[in-house]
């Protein structure tokens, strides 16, 4: 099994060069005023396919053996990973079957289908139950299962390459706010950032009703599954991956747990103050600053804005709240 190390992150950076966008890191005057220190936004919402997930999808699919490419892959996604896989698979000529929860955001579901992937909507609202179905189908047909987050290559590409860009573009930053679902982004980011800057502080931001990282830290082991919850922030729902938790457990400096209403307020804040429409899963880092749940911020801070993919009815509900 591939190990997460700086060599793997550098391999991912080289593989992604010229394929993904180097998204900007912009200072937020509004958040800086609220926090009392410089706050920057890593705008991965401007990435191709609308989220950071294309980093891991391309790196993982590009590493498949010729026979695996011909057979195609099976994966499970709450939306952004699936959209990225569908996009990359179409470009590389790899058949892709994507299993999604019944509650998947409709804009993401339509995008996966439009990109040519076979999309199977499960009878479950939660990610964890849907992932079990996807893994069973991959095993039954002998195709590779492509995890959305629980793999060193995914961590290296999704989080490691993103962290490398942030540290280059904002070298003064010492605090980093990261959304945490399965920890494919957070684990890779924390590994790279803490290796390069041992004194930096990493804050994981989660939905209050699905706090897999917080529970895992309490129990001392990865909480792999959680009951499904009703939320528009589908990327934050469900358990955490073993790979990401093994990295985070010794590197995380705090966990911020946000409510649905607080996340909605952060979406509205970004639209009002920055004219960026972002998805609820990515707004959790902004919500952590607005509510003070990120804790005391006493050094330049970067909040990762991980995606923008959100359906119009969801936007209308958020704006009407």
What does this structure look like?
The chain has 2 domains: 6-51 and 151-320, 3-Layer(aba) Sandwich (Rossmann fold); 54-146, Rossmann fold (3-Layer(aba) Sandwich). α1 crosses α8 and α8 crosses α9. It has a 6-stranded mixed β-sheet with strand order 1-2-10-7-8-9, with helices on both faces. The chain has a 4-stranded parallel β-sheet with strand order 5-4-3-6, sandwiched between helices. Helix content is 48%, strand content 14%. The chain contains 14 helices and 10 strands. It is globular, with a radius of gyration of 18 Å.
Q: What order do the helices and strands follow?
A: HEHEHHEHEHEHEHEHEHHEHHEH
Largest sheet data: 6 strands, mixed
Compute the average pLDDT: 97
Q: Segments where pLDDT lies below 50 for 5+ residues?
A: none
CATH class of the largest domain: Alpha Beta
Relative strand content: 5-15%
Q: State the end-to-end CA separation.
A: 47 Å
Strand order of the largest sheet: 1-2-10-7-8-9
Q: Into which percent range does the helicity of residues fall?
A: 40-55%
Total number of strands: 10
Question: Looking at CATH, which topology of the largest domain would you report?
Answer: Rossmann fold
Total number of helices: 14
- Radius of gyration from the alpha-carbon trace, in angstroms: 18 Å
Domain module tally: 2
Query: Which class do the helix and strand fractions yield?
Result: alpha/beta
CATH level-two architecture of the largest domain: 3-Layer(aba) Sandwich
